[in-house]
């Protein structure tokens, strides 16, 4: 479990039961070198004796003795991959994360295509608050392939989600926890991750047990977990009860409104978003959701929401995109262009930005730049449709991002 977040108790299971299985696998890898021909017979016998005693001490739960013996054996044979694995798992279970990190660095160097080694390295780095390194290691393990039935699969994704939260990548965190929930993992830890992602709460700011704040975040997450499993009615029932019991809780009406937008219940969603603004007039994401939702029916009102959002959060690119769209629709391409160009810097892979830019450049007579924008739009559109199906452009988005890095979190 993350040592800095004791309230979140999903973590890598105690790993000693896996050691012998993994050690057998590692011993068959051709990347794990054997003893040098130059080793003396005495040194080889010494290593074999130490390795055997280390395994016996490990299996007998004499872990300090095992740790000492593994280190002595590895000093004689530093290419002993399964020894590094065993030492790393013992150190990890003992919360000696710096030592465990070093051990798994050896394993991943000796067997660079072994996914579990990268996952364990990432878990150690997570505990050491090396967030960027941890995310890179876990994603490497993910890309190499962890079986859905593996002991580490859910733990890997859960910690990726926590790392996204730590790094304020709330959209990525939400997608990760939604995947876990969609795969059937309906624990309180995953629900809390979903709730924190929706309300943009850092793990260290999670309220204590048995407090209203903890209850709201948990219940929001439980509703979102039901939604991820296709149970809309159950999810809406939770949300309805929450807003009844905690009508003033910050972000709750926004979360419910956002949820309702998924099912095109726009009138109900608008009412919830406006309720959020009555509680908190400067709630930026509610302003942006209202700007996007009201764009067709009342563009002047929507533009005011977007202007206020940009004033409150000038670094959030979706606000600039929306405002640029409103200016363009009003025929003011000169005012639209700087807003859209700002959005492009932070949303470089979003086709809708280039679609809007192409129109703005055309209205201003900048033909070459318009052609480049249209070409980039077509490229990104084709890529997106290959991955997720056709999308209609030229309309306001039905959702807004949770962060600068990710301009769109699907609803």
Summarize it.
The protein is mainly alpha-helical and 411 residues long. The chain has helices spanning 16-27, 41-59, 63-76, 81-93, 97-110, 115-127, 131-144, 153-166, 170-182, 188-199, 212-228, 232-245, 252-261, 266-279, 284-293, 299-312, 317-329, 333-346, 351-363, 367-388.
Can you walk through the features of this model?
The chain has 411 residues and is mostly helical. The protein has three domains: 1-167, Tetratricopeptide repeat domain (Serine Threonine Protein Phosphatase 5, Tetratricopeptide repeat, Alpha Horseshoe), CATH 1.25.40.10; 178-188 and 197-281, Serine Threonine Protein Phosphatase 5, Tetratricopeptide repeat (Alpha Horseshoe), CATH 1.25.40; 305-411, Tetratricopeptide repeat domain (Serine Threonine Protein Phosphatase 5, Tetratricopeptide repeat), CATH 1.25.40.10. 68% of the residues lie in helices and 0% in strands. It has helices at residues 16-27, 41-59, 63-76, 81-93, 97-110, 115-127, 131-144, 153-166, 170-182, 188-199, 212-228, 232-245, 252-261, 266-279, 284-293, 299-312, 317-329, 333-346, 351-363, 367-388. The longest helix has 22 residues, at 367-388. The radius of gyration is 26 Å and the shape is elongated.
SSE layout:
Elements (H helix, E strand, L loop, with lengths): L15 H12 L13 H19 L3 H14 L4 H13 L3 H14 L4 H13 L3 H14 L8 H14 L3 H13 L5 H12 L12 H17 L3 H14 L6 H10 L4 H14 L4 H10 L5 H14 L4 H13 L3 H14 L4 H13 L3 H22 L23
